[in-house]
Amino acid sequence: MQADAYDNKSSLEEIRVRFDQDVERFSNLNTGQAATMDALLTMELITKAAVASTPEVNHLLDIGCGAGNNTMKLLELCSPKTITLVDLSLPMLQRAKERIRANFGGAIRLLQGDFRTQPLEHNHYDVILAAAVLHHLRDDQDWQQALGMIFSLNSPGGGFWISDLVSQEHPPVQALMEQRYGAYLGTQGGAAYRDKVFAYISREDSPRPVTFQLDLLRRVGYSQVELLHKNACFAAFGAIKAGS
Ligand SMILES: C[S@@+](CC[C@H](N)C(=O)[O-])C[C@H]1O[C@@H](n2cnc3c(N)ncnc32)[C@H](O)[C@@H]1O
User: Residue 133: which CATH number?
Assistant: First the structure.
């Protein structure tokens, strides 16, 4: 598992193709995604924190929504008027819409493509969710632009809530956390499963430390940041935009 080289990482198109074939794995609200440590807890924490910190949720944006698990979890807690789902993968978007439609009668807007290039309204979204997607961002400029753009989309008083694969600042601590994550994967599917997950992380992902991300969230303009949970290579955290 390597977090710092970008040249050989998957392109957006390669990531899309992989996720097009992986819809089933992201469609279980009762287990979450098996390769993620504490998947259910982090889903619960980001959605509860979102609703606790922004009592009126009219417009929801789910970035890299996959098959819609996090939006479905949020719908257990509040009733937005509109839901905007963005994903590279059309099969993911279609599954998300189908699942969300069963519990939600309002407007669902689907946008297929890179979230950074979509026609999204500024100062509009009361809650923005990004679960297991930001780790596909690459260099510092990429991260700064993406988080700055997300800040511009949040309504005043709105929040941005993230759960993701993260790395560490200090390589020996990174090695320790990888070891713990590897042990967890071993309990899920043995050594072969662990090696398979580590291989696709190394090919596809470029996670950043939660400390880096919290600093950046403040730098792009969020007035408050919150760390909700961290376990080995996974964290749940968020940020709130000052009200008007
Ligand atoms: C690991 S899945 C997580 C799905 C969902 N958020 C969840 O937690 O169940 C990551 C999703 O992000 C999407 N994705 C990755 N990079 C993206 C980007 N730049 N713009 C939009 N979607 C992206 C992928 O297509 C995939 O469906």
Answer: 3.40.50.150
